[in-house]
Amino acid sequence: MQSKLLNRRDLDFILYELLEVESLTRHPRFAEHSRETFDAALDTATRIAEEKFAPHNRKADLNEPRFDGIRVEIIPEVGEALDAFCEAGFMAAAQDIEMGGMQLPWTVAQSCFAWFSAANISTAGYPFLTIANANLIGTFGSEAQKRKYLPSLLSGRFFGTMCLSEPQAGSSLSDIRTTAHANPDGSYRLVGNKMWISAGEHDLSENIVHLVLARIGGAPAGVKGISLFMVPKYRVNDDGTLGGRNDVALAGLNHKMGFRGTTNCVLNFGEQGGAHAELVGEPNKGLAYMFQMMNEARIGVGMGATVLGYTGYLHALAYARERPQGRLPSSKDAQQPPVKIIEHADVKRMLLTQKAYVEGALALCLYCSLLVDRSHTAEDQKARREADLLLDILTPVAKAWPSQYCLEANSLAIQVHGGYGYTREYPVEQFYRDNRLNPIHEGTNGIQALDLLGRKAGMNDGAAIQLLAREISSVVREASVCDSEELRRCGMLLNDALDRVMKVTRNLLCVTGRGEVDLGLANASVYLDLAGHTVIGWMWLKQAMVAVQKVGTAHEADRDFYQGKLQACAFFFRWELSKTRQWAELLDSLDPTCLDMQDSWF
Ligand SMILES: Cc1cc2nc3c(=O)[nH]c(=O)nc-3n(C[C@H](O)[C@H](O)[C@H](O)COP(=O)(O)OP(=O)(O)OC[C@H]3O[C@@H](n4cnc5c(N)ncnc54)[C@H](O)[C@@H]3O)c2cc1C
Questions:
Q1: Does pLDDT of 304 surpass 90?
Q2: pLDDT tens-digit map of 538-593
Q3: Is 164 close to ligand 1, i.e. is its CB under 6 Å away?
Q4: Distance 474 CA to ligand 1 centre (A)
Q5: Do residues 438 and 305 lie in contact, with contact meaning Cβ atoms separated by under 8 Å?
Q6: What is the dihedral of CA 122, 166, 243, 205, to 10 degrees?
Q7: Which residue CA neighbors atom 2 of ligand 1 most closely?
Q8: CA–CA dist 193, 168 (Å, integer)
Q9: What pTM was estimated for this model as a whole?
Q10: Counting beta carbons within 10 angstroms of the beta carbon of residue 329, is it exposed (0 to 12), middle (13 to 18) or buried (19 or more)?
């Protein structure tokens, strides 16, 4: 039976036919791997996700973690699922073999992780944070810190968090107040409050390693005075054994709309005089370090949003194939049996929209994961640098586009279910609630839009966006000489959309360049829509170019699969990419309506 978590055929298509990840095995780092080992890891992930993660997804939603004043109670299935995850080695899936890892490409590791997120996003939240935490320590920690913490994080003995936000400082991290005071022995005493800390307190692991942003007393104001610290819940001795309780206290749990199985905490550091903290890297470079984790986490958030949209789509598809209701407009005879709702054009529209959004987003997130691999392993420095540049410009898109449009896919999945979708008897309402977090955390989508237009589009004289334009143009060129008239037309439409993006970018950078920054950035969210739809159009054309070559000779089931890709590509270009024209017009007009609106006029 086809899984309702994800479509393995589609994942295989993106990995092996579109992105050709097998070619990574030519690099010495992945030389021990092959399609067989990648498939084996994916099979194991699928099995554990279906057997251990999916069954308690609803139970964890209905029984959110409770704080009894001493400890946080979490349903036992969460710990059991995470034990299975760690035992199978997924915490260290992309890590070096010497570190106990599988040394999988990041693209394959992310594809494995997709199954856990699709099955149970809130249980997957614990390893999601731990993996990012370990990567950060692995990159910027001292050798002693790595020895002390990494083996425990990678085996799942310790879990990790990221502590950036404070009650008064969410989007604007330059306003954080948590302060670190130096001790004579080189360690620090940390005092402050952190808000919204996911996985901030629990007994699922022996210890919790908090990565905390704080200011060292006397540091410069703003982002240039922020440092990064490791603050474990229990102090850790040099040999890795646990010491005494650190001065980190749970002030309370936040009660959320979704993602309910992941504890979310207000943490007080230093109520008893100061939490013991170790500086990571150099003072005042904390935000730059944290950005490494955030960029990775942002693609991960996009991936989480994508797979929640994806599983919602598969549930809606299965429902639409079974639910009889009404007759086609051409056949109103009440004596005739009702048709399955999948026969209705409007239901097909909703399903096609979901398919176009989630499969487009999956291709983008895995393409970005491949860029992570390339940035580490591409043969020459130029190729590594290009991968980094593309990642820079695509990260805000990969975070924000899926979290907006795959959330919309979840809304459509509810719509396909009619009234039943609005009840708790069907899982689609939970997918929507879970996914509603993704436009908010890891930098709201509004902040991603400012990052894309205000920083990434203009950085290095526009080097990243020009490279992106070259990549998109090369697919347009391929399409222009292909046999399919439809794809040649798609190529022209994509070229038009790209021209719009580049023209709007030049205009807006001109406006911000002459000092009218508020006006230039006022409609940044629309710019993200414009750029995002163009990027997803590119992903669809790339997929369609593969599909069109194979559809003619494929066997029956595969023929349907490729035909579905071609139809979804046509749908995206006709129904969605056309929106870029209107967005570009609005941006070109420098519309000041939102900017000019006054507080008192609301
Ligand atoms: C469930 C959950 C889990 C989380 N997990 C973590 C975690 O593990 N660690 C952590 O550190 N944080 C975490 N966060 C915090 C999250 O990253 C913040 O909520 C987010 O960054 C927004 O900050 P805020 O809530 O203070 O909203 P605000 O920053 O007050 O933003 C409110 C609104 O104003 C907009 N806005 C703010 N500034 C600007 C601006 N300059 N220009 C335009 N619009 C602006 C925002 O886009 C938003 O729409 C979590 C949040 C939630 C809800």
A1: yes
A2: 999 999 999 999 999 999 989 999 999 999 999 999 999 999 999 999 999 999 99
A3: yes
A4: 37
A5: yes
A6: 0
A7: 196
A8: 10
A9: 0.98
A10: exposed
